[in-house]
Amino acid sequence: MKIACLSGKGGAGKTLVAVNLAAAAGRATYLDCDVEEPNGRLFWKPQGIRTTVVHSLLPEFDAAACTGCKKCVEFCRFHALMYIREKPTVFPEVCHSCGGCQLVCPAGAVTETEKPVGRLEVGTRGDVRVVTGILNPGEASGIPVIREVLKQAEGLTVIDCPPGSACSVMESIMDADLCILVAEPTAFGFHNFQMVYQLASLLGRRCGVVINKEDAPYVPLEDFCRERGLEILARIPYDPELAALAADGKLVWEKHAGAREIFSGLLQKIGGGA
Question: For all residues of the chain together, what is the average pLDDT?
Fold first, then answer.
C-alpha cells in the first residue's frame, strides 16, 4: 500500500504526519520526495546510510552527422532545443530527458549523456526504511530524483510529497493508493488545500483529510469536506508541546501519548494497522 501525504503549502504538517504515520506502522518504508528541502531524515536519524548518485540524460549532438533538418527542435514540446549557428543547442534547465529528439533524428546524430542532478540516501531506523531524495543546488527540476525515490517503494510505503500542487507533486502521487491531504484550519490553509485536492481529484486518487493545528472547527473546510464526501481521518490539536517536540526533531508518536493515539487511530482507519 502506498500512502502519499501532501499539502497545498509548506508548514501545514505533511512531514509531521508522514514520519509519525510510518513510525506508528512499525514496519514501513518512508520516502522523502520533497527533494528540494528534504527534512524527514531530521526526525528519523537513519543508520547505515547508502548513497547513490542520480543522473538525468541530456542529448548530445554529432555536428558532422547532423543534416540540419530541425526535426528534433520541432519535436521538443518543452522548447529545450534551438537551432543556432547551424547546429542544435540544448538548454539543460528545461530538458525533460524524454529521449524524443534521439528517436526522431533521421541521421542518428543524437546520443545521450549523463548529468548528475542529485542523490539518494537509503538508511534504516528500526524496521523503517528511510529513503531520502536530495536535489543538487541549482537544478531546475527534481523529477529525476523523485522517480528514483519512488522506485524504492516496498511494503507499506509512506510518501512525503513536496508542498504545493506543481509537477513534482503530481509525479509523487501518480501511483498512490491513498492521498492524505494535510490542512491548516485557516483561510490561507484552506485556499491551498483546495488546490491540492483538485490535483489529486484530476488524477483519480482516493483522498482523506488530516486537519493539523486545530483549536476550533474551521467551518468552510468542514463544509467542503462534507459536501465532497471527504473523510476527516484525524484531527491534530494546536498543542505547544507537540510543536516543541517536532521542532526538536522528535517523533511525536514516541514521545506524546495523545499523538500516539492519533496516529495509531489514523493507521487503523486507512487499513495499515494490524
Answer: 93
Q: Give the chain as a DSSP string.
A: -EEEEE-SSTTSSHHHHHHHHHHHHSSEEEEE--TTS--HHHHH--EEEEEEEEEEEEEEE-TTT-----HHHHH-TT--EEEETTEEEE-TTT-----HHHHH-TT--EEEEEEEEEEEEEEEETTEEEEEEEEPTT-S--HHHHHHHHTT--SSEEEEPPSSSSHHHHHHHTT-SEEEEEE-SSHHHHHHHHHHHHHHHHTT--EEEEEEEESS--HHHHHHHHHTT-EEEEEEE--HHHHHHHHTT--HHHH-HHHHHHHHHHHHHTT---
Domain 63-108 of CATH type 3.30.70.20: yes
Q: How many CA atoms lie within 13 A of 86 on its CB side?
A: 4
Domain with CATH 3.30.70.20 in the chain: 63-108
Kindly report the number of other CB atoms within 10 A of residue 41's CB atom. Answer: 20
The CATH 3.40.50.300 domain(s) of the chain lie at 2-54+117-269
CATH of span 2-54+117-269: 3.40.50.300
Cell match 486545530: residue?
214
Q: Which residues pair with 59 in a beta bridge?
A: 112
Whole-prediction pTM value?
0.89
Angle formed at CA 158 by CA 157 and CA 159, multiple of 5 degrees: 115
Among candidate residues 261, 262, 242, the one with its CA nearest the CA of residue 252: 242
Model confidence pLDDT, tens digit, residues 218-272: 999 999 999 999 999 999 999 999 999 999 999 999 999 999 999 999 999 988 6
> 274 falls in which pLDDT band (50, 70, 90)?
very low
